[in-house]
Amino acid sequence: MTRSVLLVEDDAAIAAVIAEALGEEGYDVALCSRIDRRDELLAQRSFDVMLTDVILEDGDGLASIAAVHAAAPEMPVIVLSAQNTLDTAVRASDSQSFEYFPKPFDLDELTKAVGQAAARQPSASPQSDATDDMPFIGRSPAMQGVYRMITRVLRNDLTVLVTGDSGTGKELVAEAIHELGARKTGPFVAVNAAAIPHDLIESELFGHEKGAFTGAVNQAIGKFEQANGGTLFLDEIGDMPAQAQTRLLRALQSGRIRRVGGRHDIAVDVRIIAATNRALAPMIAEGSFREDLYYRLNVVPIPMPPLRERREDIAALARHFLALAEREGLPRRAIAEDAVAALTERDWPGNVRELRNVVFRLALIARNETIDRATVDENLPPLEAASDPGTESGLASALAAWLEGREVPSGTLYHAALAEFEKPLLEHALRETEGNQVRAAQLLGINRNTLRKKISDLAIEPDRYARRR
């Protein structure tokens, strides 16, 4: 039986391409570019699937989907949009649409989604009070993937693992899932595993009874109980000690926790969202992170792209941060296109957080109302120096760039910086000695066994540097 599709799209070129692709797959496609004509066609006949753009000639195609569902409650709707923001993705999800595709989209993926929609009915979605005040800035393809994954976990309590470099906005993802999801009326509790001493982290998570240990003069409620009915965000999960990992796994499996020094289990109802800037796979291999806990946490992975992989978002981010700076009492500034170009050329190892701090600094020190390229160049390390770790000034600039915007827990800065630069140093030694670990250890001035342990800890592959014969 021939499947029918109603395509509502006011861009004639896009409509023709989609219609041709679906026609080749055997679909009967009806085209229109207006909401009023769409409603006429729906009144005349039934369709298996509808595809609709958001901005149409006579109105908002997304806002009027409720009327479509009323007229054809069994028909799945796929939303297409060039308004590539998290707000649009959430509105599409809340409108009970079957799927959302930001433009430009992959035509094969769209055709596949049409087939899936034609084969089954869409599930009902709860309404959301989402507003235009979304927590993300950016319309790059990399961010579109993030937006789509966020909307897919709003209606469920699946555990989410957010990964990515420091400063990419992992906590923003957790906050968005909570604020836009079914648990938005409950508490959102965040805990940073890297910022808590290892001997106190179990008490912090699960609470403790009076007298459980020296200094426990009163009963304390842990983060799990504080988050009951809401969301618990476990940041820097890769820094959690082994014993706490075991107790966390037990809590995730059973939905129950026990306070330190307690005798009875306590049922808790929390959604878990975890985040890390560390590669957990090497940690599993070396035994410092539990594999079973990883699989419990990594039900829905959401990788956050570094800023260098979405440079097209830097202009919008910079202007957004200038507006924030003004609201916080800094002078009102605009930014020239050549200044945006100067910012876009950089790699931003501290990612969005680093960019924010730099923009605030530029807003403070700029001599004119408009920030120009000269202001940027005067107040940031030269690009050639930052990219040349072979000179003393280049290495200092690289370290300064790495430190920019980072929020490192007190007492850990030295080790964090050392870990960041130790791996490229060891790789350089191995490269210079063509993978010979004895000579590399001599070059570095360290014991061979120490080098071997560091190679293992840092997941370095020395064979990569061996001379090919």
From TrEMBL:
Which Gene3D superfamilies does the annotation name? Answer: 1.10.8.60, 3.40.50.2300, Homeodomain-like, P-loop containing nucleotide triphosphate hydrolases
Keyword field? Activator, ATP-binding, Cytoplasm, DNA-binding, Nitrogen fixation, Nucleotide-binding, Phosphoprotein, Repressor, Transcription, Transcription regulation, Two-component regulatory system
**Transcription regulation found in the keyword field:** yes
Q: Where is the Sigma-54 factor interaction domain?
A: 136-364
Where it sits in the cell: the answer is:
Cytoplasm
What role does it play?
Answer: Member of the two-component regulatory system NtrB/NtrC, which controls expression of the nitrogen-regulated (ntr) genes in response to nitrogen limitation. Phosphorylated NtrC binds directly to DNA and stimulates the formation of open promoter-sigma54-RNA polymerase complexes.
UniProt organism field:
Qipengyuania benthica
Transcription as UniProt keyword: yes
Q: Which domain of life is it from?
A: Bacteria
Under the heading PROSITE patterns, the entry gives:
RESPONSE_REGULATORY, SIGMA54_INTERACT_1, SIGMA54_INTERACT_2, SIGMA54_INTERACT_3, SIGMA54_INTERACT_4
Where 4-aspartylphosphate occurs, the residues are D53
Report the protein name in the record: DNA-binding transcriptional regulator NtrC
> Pfam families attached here?
AAA_lid_14, HTH_8, Response_reg, Sigma54_activat
The record's section on SUPFAM superfamilies has: CheY-like (SSF52172), Homeodomain-like (SSF46689), P-loop containing nucleoside triphosphate hydrolases (SSF52540)
Q: Tell me where in this chain the Response regulatory domain is found.
A: 4-118
